[in-house]
Specification:
647 residues; alpha/beta; 8-stranded mixed sheet; 21% strand; globular
Length: 647
């Protein structure tokens, strides 16, 4: 600093001398040799004067902006401070040899079915145990649950099941897991109450003894290796949480499903303070919800649907039939509030809707006087303008209450031309067809349908909220979760924008095991995963081969053969009986039967000697011969069912 000041003082005399030199030059007698006039001799000196004055002026300006080295040193200090707070490396114990393995068994490459395993060397916990829905080709399948094969392998290590919130895609598979193995369950009251209802339906009331209700903002020691804090989070269901999971390797933040709602209906916004607290301490890894990662617009508050609901009830002249997700208690709560405001009684229809509202009222999440509710059989005796019906079926499910109303099969409610149907939900991917089909039925009844954008808001974080989560938590490593591949890929891009190095982000798929330690994150192995098919009518598992056979029957049909064969001669004793379904039209049955008879005769002539003595092998070869012929002729692989009698 002193040396630089000396430099400045040494330069000053030089700048002072320059104008003197210029003055001396100007006083010199002009050289008149080869010059014809005074003008020519004076012009160069005036130009020199201008040039020198400009140089002197710029030097003067430079001297006026002297750098204060003390201030500059604080710029450097603040830059270092930014590096320290934004770089999580400084906050982690890089000398630790501890590690955690994270294995998603569902919820990636799909929407729903969320379940993940967190493992140390000696212990493991499960985060959520959810279900998902089948596609159109899974005939007779009502729900899908995760394959528990890996959990059977590590059953001795599992110390707890940790629940983030009460949506079906996070708790729906709990009864099926607890029929087979049981562990302590930790969660907030609403998710545990809803799991308890499921246990009751599946005759597992004894499993309620595993419940451990928690208090948010309090750290719980679970097993020997895990400390977990539940942090309040806003979502499309009340009492949702994010998790801070602390192990010897470091702290992992699991967001669960979330959005950042600053004006929630119940007045409890997301607990950003705790997220920031852990971010400041240092977070090893963040697992964050990717469902809405293509949406650049901030997700509106749940409270933003209120004006639209108010307008609907103000204008409605007949009954209002509102359908939404049964778990969206705050949406239902607002609808009921406006129904009551305009003098309507409330009829709740649909088992899941009735159950969820009942639980929310029993546990004081919402409060209504009981005299505002009426039973479905009373509706027909009431004035239409005095009725609000809250029901399930916004996704067009064939067994839902709204769908049965639309086709006139509901026992108490038939849709009328004066009704206003309010669909306050978005279409889950894959349900567009069933919703459109239901809309057609509703409109054939003459009713009006309201499904405007302003009567529904998402429960998932958009890009801006994902950025906020990333900046608050400031993780060293990042694992986007909950969504299809395009969702997690987009979330990865957002993570890179928010300062997470690309090498510190991995895109997982179900069954991939990720090892996380303070110094590294890597994929270590793949475990068995998949889906188990469930028939909801009897709550039993459907074997894989049954579903495959159903798909084959639906796509390619079935051919049944009854054949009598002489073991010695290797010839048919009678004409074979050939019956087909879903393959040829009825009028072609006889021609098709004759065609297959010729195939069987040719097969018997060319079969291996002695094949008739092995009944199983004989049927397998016969099936193959018929299948090949049908494929050559029709490009179909029907299910072939042979019945052979060898005499």
């Amino acid at each position: 600093m002193a040396e630089e000041n000396q430099e400045v003082t040494q330069q000053k005399p030089q700048t002072d001398r320059k104008p003197n030199n210029n003055r001396r030059n100007n006083n010199r007698r002009p050289n008149t040799s080869n010059k014809t006039g005074d003008e020519k001799t004076t012009k160069p000196s005036s130009n020199n004067n201008n040039r020198n004055r400009s140089k002197g002026g710029s030097r003067g300006r430079r001297n006026a902006t002297v750098v204060d080295e003390n201030l500059k040193s604080f710029v450097t200090k603040n830059q270092e401070s930014h590096k320290q707070r934004l770089n999580p490396h400084y906050k982690l114990d890089l000398n630790s040899k501890a590690k955690v393995r994270i294995t998603p068994l569902g919820g990636l490459g799909e929407i729903g079915g969320n379940i993940a395993v967190f493992e140390t060397e000696n212990e493991a916990i499960l985060i959520d145990v959810g279900m998902s829905f089948p596609d159109e080709e899974m005939h007779g399948v009502d729900i899908l649950i995760p394959d528990f094969a890996y959990l059977r392998e590590i059953k001795h290590k599992i110390v707890a099941v940790i629940i983030t919130h009460a949506h079906e895609d996070h708790i729906g598979a709990m009864p099926y897991l607890y029929k087979e193995m049981q562990f302590p369950i930790y969660g907030t009251p609403l998710p545990l109450a809803m799991i308890g209802n499921k246990f009751d339906e599946h005759h597992l009331k004894d499993c309620r003894k595993y419940f451990n209700p928690i208090e948010k903002r309090k750290v719980y020691k679970i097993g020997n290796d895990f400390e977990i804090e539940w942090m309040h989070m806003t979502h499309s269901i009340i009492d949702s949480s994010s998790l801070a999971i602390t192990t010897e390797a470091g702290t992992i933040i699991h967001t669960g499903d979330f959005k950042i709602d600053h004006t929630p209906v119940d007045g409890y916004p997301a607990d950003l303070h705790r997220l920031a607290y852990y971010g400041d301490k240092g977070v090893l890894c963040l697992l964050s919800d990717s469902t809405n990662s293509h949406n650049p617009t901030p997700t509106p508050s749940e409270l933003s649907v209120a004006p639209a609901l108010d307008r609907i009830f103000y204008k409605a002249e007949g009954r209002v039939i509102l359908s939404t997700f049964s778990s969206n208690i705050h949406r239902v709560y607002q609808a009921i509030q406006y129904g009551v405001k305009y003098g309507r009684k409330v009829c709740v229809i649909g088992r899941s809707m009735e159950r969820n509202i009942e639980i929310a009222m029993q546990y004081d999440y919402i409060r209504f006087p009981k005299n505002i509710f009426v039973d479905a059989e009373e509706v027909s005796r009431m004035n239409d303008k005095d009725v609000l019906i809250v029901t399930t079926g916004s996704q067009g499910e064939a067994n839902s209450a709204l769908f049965r109303m639309s086709i006139g099969e509901h026992r108490h409610i038939k849709i009328k031309p004066t009704d206003l149907i309010v669909l306050s939900s978005r279409a889950i991917p894959g349900n567009e067809g069933s919703i459109s089909n239901m809309m057609n039925f509703i409109q054939r009844c003459g009713a009006k349908v309201a499904m405007d954008r302003d009567i529904h808001v998402s429960g998932h974080a958009s890009i801006e909220e994902q950025k906020l989560m990333l900046r608050l938590v400031n993780p060293k490593f990042f694992l986007p979760i909950h969504g299809e591949y395009n969702h997690v890929m987009k979330h990865k891009e957002t993570g890179v924008l928010c300062g997470v190095p690309e090498r510190n982000i991995l895109l997982m798929t179900d069954g991939e095991q990720i090892e996380v330690a303070p110094k590294y994150m890597r994929k270590v192995k793949t475990v068995k995963t998949g889906k188990t098919y469930i028939d909801n009518q009897n709550n039993h598992e459907i074997e894989d081969d049954i579903v495959v056979d159903r798909q084959k029957l639906a796509n390619d049909g079935v051919v049944m053969l009854v054949v009598e064969v002489s073991e010695q001669e290797g010839k048919m004793l009678n004409k074979p009986k050939v019956t087909s379904f879903g393959l040829v039209a009825d009028k072609r049955d006889k021609a098709f039967a004759k065609e297959i008879e010729d195939v069987l005769e040719h097969f018997l002539i060319n079969m291996k000697p002695g094949l008739t003595s092995n009944h199983k092998a004989f049927e397998a070869d016969m099936r193959q011969a018929v299948r090949k012929h049908i494929y050559r002729r029709m490009k179909k692989y029907p299910l072939i069912v042979p019945h052979t009698f060898i005499h």
